[in-house]
Write a structure and sequence with these properties.
Chain lengths: 300, 300, 300, 300, 300
Amino acid sequence: MSNDRVPRPALAELGLGTGKKARLHRILYQHGLRNGTAMFLPYDQGLEHGPRDFFDNPAAGDPRYIIKLAVEGGFNGVAIQVGSAEKFFWDYAGEVPLLLKLNGRTEIPSAAAPRSPLNASVEDAVRLGADAVGYTLYVGSEQQEADFEAFAEVRRQAHRFGLPLVVWSYPRGKAVDAKGGKNSFYQVDYASRTAGELGADIVKLNFPDPKATEGVPKAYAAEVGEQDAVNAVVRSAARTPVLLSGGEKGGDEEVLDKARMAMEAGALGVIFGRNVWQRQYDESLRFVERLRELLSKYPS
Amino acid sequence: MSNDRVPRPALAELGLGTGKKARLHRILYQHGLRNGTAMFLPYDQGLEHGPRDFFDNPAAGDPRYIIKLAVEGGFNGVAIQVGSAEKFFWDYAGEVPLLLKLNGRTEIPSAAAPRSPLNASVEDAVRLGADAVGYTLYVGSEQQEADFEAFAEVRRQAHRFGLPLVVWSYPRGKAVDAKGGKNSFYQVDYASRTAGELGADIVKLNFPDPKATEGVPKAYAAEVGEQDAVNAVVRSAARTPVLLSGGEKGGDEEVLDKARMAMEAGALGVIFGRNVWQRQYDESLRFVERLRELLSKYPS
Amino acid sequence: MSNDRVPRPALAELGLGTGKKARLHRILYQHGLRNGTAMFLPYDQGLEHGPRDFFDNPAAGDPRYIIKLAVEGGFNGVAIQVGSAEKFFWDYAGEVPLLLKLNGRTEIPSAAAPRSPLNASVEDAVRLGADAVGYTLYVGSEQQEADFEAFAEVRRQAHRFGLPLVVWSYPRGKAVDAKGGKNSFYQVDYASRTAGELGADIVKLNFPDPKATEGVPKAYAAEVGEQDAVNAVVRSAARTPVLLSGGEKGGDEEVLDKARMAMEAGALGVIFGRNVWQRQYDESLRFVERLRELLSKYPS
Amino acid sequence: MSNDRVPRPALAELGLGTGKKARLHRILYQHGLRNGTAMFLPYDQGLEHGPRDFFDNPAAGDPRYIIKLAVEGGFNGVAIQVGSAEKFFWDYAGEVPLLLKLNGRTEIPSAAAPRSPLNASVEDAVRLGADAVGYTLYVGSEQQEADFEAFAEVRRQAHRFGLPLVVWSYPRGKAVDAKGGKNSFYQVDYASRTAGELGADIVKLNFPDPKATEGVPKAYAAEVGEQDAVNAVVRSAARTPVLLSGGEKGGDEEVLDKARMAMEAGALGVIFGRNVWQRQYDESLRFVERLRELLSKYPS
Amino acid sequence: MSNDRVPRPALAELGLGTGKKARLHRILYQHGLRNGTAMFLPYDQGLEHGPRDFFDNPAAGDPRYIIKLAVEGGFNGVAIQVGSAEKFFWDYAGEVPLLLKLNGRTEIPSAAAPRSPLNASVEDAVRLGADAVGYTLYVGSEQQEADFEAFAEVRRQAHRFGLPLVVWSYPRGKAVDAKGGKNSFYQVDYASRTAGELGADIVKLNFPDPKATEGVPKAYAAEVGEQDAVNAVVRSAARTPVLLSGGEKGGDEEVLDKARMAMEAGALGVIFGRNVWQRQYDESLRFVERLRELLSKYPS
């Protein structure tokens, strides 16, 4: 395995049609740091995990609070489900790019063979003035076939309408559990490549854990450093810009270290939700300020 | 978890297009108490439970009887299936808002992984002069994927035609039974949030039981009072107005207490069926009068 | 449970558009007894049971024979599948109303979770000059979801083209077997209600057996007389006119007793097949004459 | 010619499907006098005549002013074009029925052979929550063919969606000018009949002038009184309820006399625009009060 | 006629859905002066007038030159035809809002009864990442009927996809010439109203000439000042924000005076083409700077 880092691809290198380029330019150069990096605020946890994610900071249960935070925190975009967009985005329409999340599921039914059903269409996103759409792909699930097929149609619609397609590329399911697990370097690396091969414009990945090697193919069993693993998954995406996600709330320094690792690896940026809004509003803004400072060092 | 109550959202805050706003205004301010609260009469039990629900008051088996009761009781709307609407609504067309229930199932086949199939379309509702449509979403069912996808199409049609979409958001299925059960606070709270995220205009919930904690996530295992649980599910809906449903017939005082709890929590109102019509007509009207008196104290 | 009988609903009370009313008026007042009662001749047994049903009277295997019998016996309509209609109805077109059966299945595959697939469309029925269409709904089957959805589309097409929709509402499947069985009063009563709720214009039911109480809900476990059970299923249809079907061939007196019970309960009439044509032509006509005499006593 | 007056047809006699009946009931019994009469406020003059119609009372150039007047004056509906509805109806949505005018033209191009092009669809009306749609039919125009065909499609859509269709039935064009002129009894009588024959649910007519007999067929050349002419055009509509329109602003007494004539003739009501809003707001309300007093004498 | 000026309507008052609001917010508050005023650069003269318009400054014949000018001049948008957008917008995609002009014609065929045919669709605009679409409506043309009908479909598509619709509302044709002419106050005032009634989100008008009174209706024959005429046409648009266009190149002071008049009248801004780019690049930027200075005085 190579340890090489690849430089972040330029917008002009991504094979984008005019509409996708216009919208990505807007996201990357007219919002956030305006320097080609990206910091997204994801807010689909109310559906994916349920209201319990808001127990520590109940105010965050209000989508309006989150959109306001995205505006005032200077994010490059806020990722929400269609119901929240319909009710809450009007007030802030145009002030922060909307990344409409097109599918989602609750955590209640078994996740042994999950698929994330479509709750909205690319056309819904166009109508709502979104600048991008998001799709969760469960790489490795027993329902992968239906998932890939639904994704292909979303990709076609995103092409038709010129909306950048951000893929939450997540290893999931029984087979994934048996081969390293959903956060293993093997699985995340494979998910990165899969998203690129299937036509993601941007891929969102979890940080790969190179120590989770139980059941992984021999090639992934060797010892690999954390930074090297991040370098690898960014490289595997093959010119698909990568967003690293934060997952559960961790300590600030630890999270910032991860973000630094991502940017060093050539990622486009980060998409941190719970680490941002599972705290008081002012604390959120202070943490965001540190993230911005970090991203300001990686212009393109 | 917060104990805060959120005020009932104003019609102008719901992100509604002109048609949805016109129809909700009509429902809330030209029928019922005309004060922004709502009292709906649901009548899909003949399909959901079968004729046995009419054994105690056989007259209630006649849809005409029920629609008349909705008119004379001053309800904000009557929720019926398409067959009953086709045969019985003409006589009273325009006198009480019609909430056409679009899906439904019999209780006979296994409910281990239920889905409620579409029996009518939003366009049927438009043609029949309905002012709203209703959809039962089985949150947590193993068939959740097909359910969410069918719902998304109904949501799009409701948007297209400007009809408010009322979601019966019901936890159901094996996984739900294993995690608190269908009436547990955890499940009802999650169902509330899910309906809002997916685009309900109004959500109908069962009263949450905070004592049903077997198998629920740790965050929901703490002791919670009844009123606090109702407050929470109303808050989780995030600007989606909430209707609380009554379920099986109970004692009048108990039911009125529940209704009061709902209104105190900021709900839009109640949707009581069996508690209304599983008794003689005059008794129904007397009970309705008490409900109206209660709702008259919560204008907006 | 009430023992009340409800009067047969008048044509003008059924919420029919002009086309449905025109065709039903033709069926009920220009054919058969011309007195508002109905006697249909069903002939889908060749598909549903196979040629064995014709072994006792091989001539009845010829659709032409049956249509001629329907004409000469003065039936209100003959119910056949599309293939038979295409080949044989031309000769008698206009002489007896055609009820085109739109779905059907063979008895060969397992009936544990049956669904009756569509073999023809409402538009086929229009093209063939049919005055009504028929659909078999398997209430309670594990495939109920797909069945309800297919039915909803047939209902919409029947509305669009103004053809009355006759529903063979049949309890079927494992869950039905476990709760009283397909002919139990509980199941037939529920099936009657279901057809009405979903939009049947006429519902065809089997005679309910009030003694089949194994596994039924408590409300149905009480002792109920045969006539009371028939009264109940007619009442549960809620203004949907009911046709009682004969099922397997029985003794004439027994069958006529059942027909009388149906008419006393307020049914629209009967739909007897094997009891009519599983005998010689002249005998068939003699039996039909007795049925006509009975129906002549229930004008409306 | 008969001088008979025909009574105003009841809602139940109009052959309306459920949706049209629901919406007309709402218009006639939940707004205005709530007594079955109708008083509409038309506001398409900005398009049909241009801003000059607002010169005497510039405030009336603001659609919001007019909709407010319709609400506060207690009208049964306000007739506006789609652009005004999109921008201004949201604020008052549900407070007064919207009659969406589907076609319209400017007075600039030649009116020798006019046709009023469609500017909106019935589906637009549904989406905006309108309770009725309006269509201008130029009876007698050289472009009548295209007009009738466009109307037929509008009628079909109005049927499909259950919206009452109000027809501005206006004689127009060179041939009309040569045979009595657009306001002649002959032409208005013919236009009344035409609207009914082609499927109007309500027809809007100008007051017929029985003195304009130049060029009319012999049958219309006889001397006829004004009331008799109005009686006749109402009768010619053949169960299509008639609205009489006011045209240019006249003296109050004269206009009220005309309204009385209309109601005596069995009309549904009046649709007065310039006579209402070409004066100060308070004067408008005072004039409306006199109209309401008149209509209150003709309940049904 | 009133001399009143109406204030520029706020974005929140325009009845806009979320997508239209997002895109207009972006145009008005994230580009140009970012103060709610607008300065558009139109570039459809190559089609409408032919290359002769570029003879004075041949460089302006290159669409890339113009788009660069729009970016560097800080315009709120550049209006171009689809072919230019396909070839030239990619380079600058996202840097300046694209207003895709959907129809257009050459000046070669007779303009006695003109219609501007559709050269692109709203969906083309979405795909190209446009933030608005433009449509030329020839008010008063003998082809007005086909024009209105084509416009209605564009309006529906713009609504469907959430793109603001800018209407070039231009009086044209023989009847217009006979009644004041295309720039007369009467015609421009009527065109302003027409665009609003038919559903424009923004209307682009030529400066009205109150001295062109030959053949106009009496109401427009009175003496009216220039500013009063501009006030009137802005008012007639009735909450439809107005852009005034410059037409042929004039002297800078004269053009700036007109722009000032527009802003004083409550217009949204200006759309100046030839006055901007029919000079050397640097001179263009200097002139633009003066326009920006003017617009900076009219924030909202």
